[in-house]
Amino acid sequence: MRIKIGILALLTLAACGGGPSGPISRACEAGGRPGANKMLCSCVQGVADDTLSGSEQRRAAKFFKDPQKAQDTRQGDGTAAFWRRYRAFADRAEAVCR
After folding, report:
1. Are 47 and 25 in contact (CB under 8 A)?
2. Residue 17 predicted with pLDDT over 80
3. What is the rounded CA–CA span in Å between residue 44 and residue 36?
4. Which superkingdom is the protein from (predicted)?
């Protein structure tokens, strides 16, 4: 139920031109990827707010600028728990923010 309420809030904010802002949103907008826009990046930030801690968001935001960092993190020792949470975030953002 919390997820549905969160998604409804995101859609309402997006319709008003606003939305969640944070490290993921800023990195998404600055990343220069095709299709990235304020509405999409705000949606992705909203999912991040629901699934990642602030420090995890700052860590994941670096992946937008340097995708190799994501690969290094995935393969790194002691990062399995973070990587599981990051993948859950990425999968959910992909499903919700299309």
Report:
1. no
2. no
3. 10
4. Bacteria
Question: Nearest Cα to 64, choosing from 23, 21, 22, 28?
Answer: 28
> What is the Cβ-side half-sphere exposure of residue 13, based on CA atoms within 13 angstroms?
18
Tell me if 42 sits within 8 A of 14, measured CB to CB. yes
Q: What is the mean pLDDT of the chain?
A: 85
Residues 29-62 pLDDT 10s: 998 888 899 999 999 999 999 999 999 999 999 9
- Token readout for 35 is 């299709």
Q: DSSP assignment of 40-97, as one string?
A: HHHHHHHHHHHHS-HHHHHHHHHHHH-HHHHHHHHHSTT-HHHHHHHHHHHHHHHHH-
Interior CA angle at 73 toward 71 and 76, to 5°?
110
Spatial separation of the C-alpha atoms in residues 50 and 71, rounded to whole Å = 23
